Amino acid sequence: MTLVTTKKILKDAQRNDYAVGHFNTSNLEITKAIVEAASEMNSPVIVAASKGAIKYAGIKQIAEIVKTAAKKTKIPVALHLDHSPDIDLIADCIKYGWTSVMIDASHFSFVKNTRLTKLAVQLAHRRKIPVEAELGRLEGKEGWVKGKEIFTDPEKAKVFARLTGCDSLAVSIGTSHGAYKFKGTPRLDIKRLKEINEQVRIPLVLHGASSVPQKLVVEANKYNAKLKGMIGVPNSQIRQAIRNGICKVNTDTDIRIAFDLGIRKSLKQHPENIDYRKYLASGMAEVKKLVKSKIRLFKSENAV
Fold first, then answer.
1. Residue 303 lies in a domain
2. What are the residues whose beta carbons fall under 8 Å from the beta carbon of 283, sequence distance 6 or more?
3. In whole angstroms, what is the distance from residue 250 CA to residue 271 CA?
4. What is the CATH number for 167?
5. Is residue 304 a part of any domain in this protein?
6. Which residues contact 233 (CB under 8 A, 6 or more apart)?
7. Phi–psi pair at 182, nearest 5 degrees
């Protein structure tokens, strides 16, 4: 199948009360593992890359890798630009065949965020490419930065969606990027999410949603990783979020932990091996297991 946009994927998820997994990649191995896992689960999937991943692997190279993987499967696969800080990068991604883009101007004022998002929407919609935007900031473990609330305001979300015309909206309800999301007990503001979902008609997105499976962390540490104090979003709270309007769940950190574990484990168990294909295959196997577990959690298995 050729690449598809996220528009129908997310609308189907919204209608049927599940979420689609967004999984970040920056190389061939992780991309193959993501798409193969989704194919075996008969689930739609969103393969994403950030500005950093594009700098590492190349904008055209990533596009071709994902396009090739998509052609070998019957499931819907979208290629998504994650957290673009500017319009120029969005234009470049559209040029090279990306089928979904995100403009992240959430660190600016509401007025400037609205203006930049609207520009991104106008550019992308000319090519029928959907746009994800973000309102609220995924910083600060308790939802505050320098005395200012950074969680998404439901009323502002309604106005923002109407003014910008964005196709999906990433909301801030207590998550943050990386593996150290919480100072204390993990807690998402589900009440706030319910209120946003009542105000906004477009699909909602949960960023910073890696659960940091402790089983993976413990096993990685057994093979000489030094992963301490990592806390992610509990699966029970992700389920709650999906029940209350989240249609797309972003996962990056968990992918990194799984890939790292597979490689460490292979090199430890087979120190004589210098065939990188073998230890990279071990990393891919761990990523596949991780992605399948996420698809079950998101309830998108057999959604195609």
1. no
2. 29, 33, 258, 259, 260, 261, 262, 263, 266
3. 34
4. 3.20.20.70
5. no
6. 175, 181, 186, 188, 208, 209, 210, 211
7. -135, 145
pTM of the prediction? 0.94
Q: Which residues of 176-208 are buried (b: 16+ CB within 10 A; e: fewer)?
A: bbebebbeeebebbbebbbbbbebbebbbbbbb
3-state secondary structure of 16: helix
With the C-alpha atoms ordered 184, 299, 8, 24, is the resulting torsion angle positive or negative? positive
Q: What is the DSSP string of 192-224?
A: HHHHHHHH--SPEEE-S-----HHHHHHHHHTT
Active site residues: 82
**Quick check: 44 and 75 in contact, CB under 8 A?**
yes
Looking at residue 11, what is its pLDDT? 98
Locate all alpha helices (DSSP H) within 21-107, ordered by sequence: 28-41, 51-57, 59-71, 87-95
H or E segment and range at residue 149: strand 148-149
Cα separations in angstroms, 191 against 151, 152, 154, 197:
12, 12, 11, 10
Residue 1 domain-assigned?
A: no
CA distances, 17 to each of 103, 146, 195, 240, 269 (Å): 25, 36, 17, 11, 43
Number of Cβ within 10 Å of residue 96's Cβ equals 16
Q: How many domains does the chain have?
A: 1
* Cβ-contact 242, 18 below 8 angstroms: yes
Q: pLDDT tens digit string along 37-72?
A: 999 999 999 999 999 999 999 999 999 999 999 999
CB atoms under 10 Å from CB of 289, counted, come to 15
